[in-house]
Amino acid sequence: MSTAAAVVTALTFVWLGMVFAISFIEAPLKFRAPGVTLPIGLGIGRLVFRALNAAEIIWAAGILVAVLVGSWLGLAEPIAAVVAIAALAIQVAVVRPALTKRSDAVLAGHEGPRSHAHLVYVGFEVVKVVALIWLGVAVLIGAT
């Protein structure tokens, strides 16, 4: 396995694990914990997802560099990497500001109509997970 492939594999599966752990386990469960109110849950969520997105940006940059400098047998690895990175970029640049606006309103005591931004964010999480699995498997298959 080349150095680029090893870097892509490691970063891909660390990134995938973090998304599973935070987005699909921690996020929904925190609201079920005793004493966690909506404002507390939103506050925790904002901190956790800000940290996750910062780490994701670092991992995405590392994957991008490794994909650009590596030699790949086909287009699967670069395409999967671009899909995962694009999903992250949309989440951070488009969806997260809408979530922040909604959570700001809730924290200020203005419930208002429910936002569909969470569902959009989860949709992009699913796209990202599929792309990361695709990327990791493609690199491992190509390295054999």
What can you see in these coordinates?
Keywords: Membrane, Transmembrane, Transmembrane helix. With 144 residues, the chain is mainly alpha-helical. The protein has one domain (3-142). 82% of the residues lie in helices and 0% in strands. The protein is built from four helices and no strands. Helix 1 (3-30) runs antiparallel to helix 2 (38-69) and helix 3 (76-107) runs antiparallel to helix 4 (117-142). The radius of gyration is 17 Å and the shape is elongated. The mean pLDDT is 91.
List the keywords:
transmembrane helix; 4 helices; 82% helix; transmembrane; single chain; DUF4149 domain-containing protein; 144 residues; membrane; mainly alpha
SSE blueprint and pairings:
Blueprint: H1 3-30, H2 38-69, H3 76-107, H4 117-142
Helix pairs in contact: 1-2, 1-4, 2-3, 3-4
Oligomer state equals single chain
State the share of residues found in helices, binned by percent: over 70%
- Counting DSSP E segments of at least 2 residues, the number of strands comes to 0
User: How many strands, which pairing sense, and closed or not: the largest β-sheet?
Assistant: none
Radius of gyration: 17 Å
Q: What coarse outline follows from CA principal-axis ratios?
A: elongated
Class derived from helix and strand content: mainly alpha
- What's the number of domains? 1
Low-confidence stretches: none
Instruction: State the separation between the terminal residues, measured CA to CA.
Output: 8 Å
List SSEs in N-to-C order: HHHH
Bin the strand percentage. Answer: under 5%
- The number of helical segments is 4
Would you tell me the overall average pLDDT? 91
Transmembrane segments: 56-73, 79-99, 119-143
Protein name: DUF4149 domain-containing protein
Keywords: Membrane, Transmembrane, Transmembrane helix
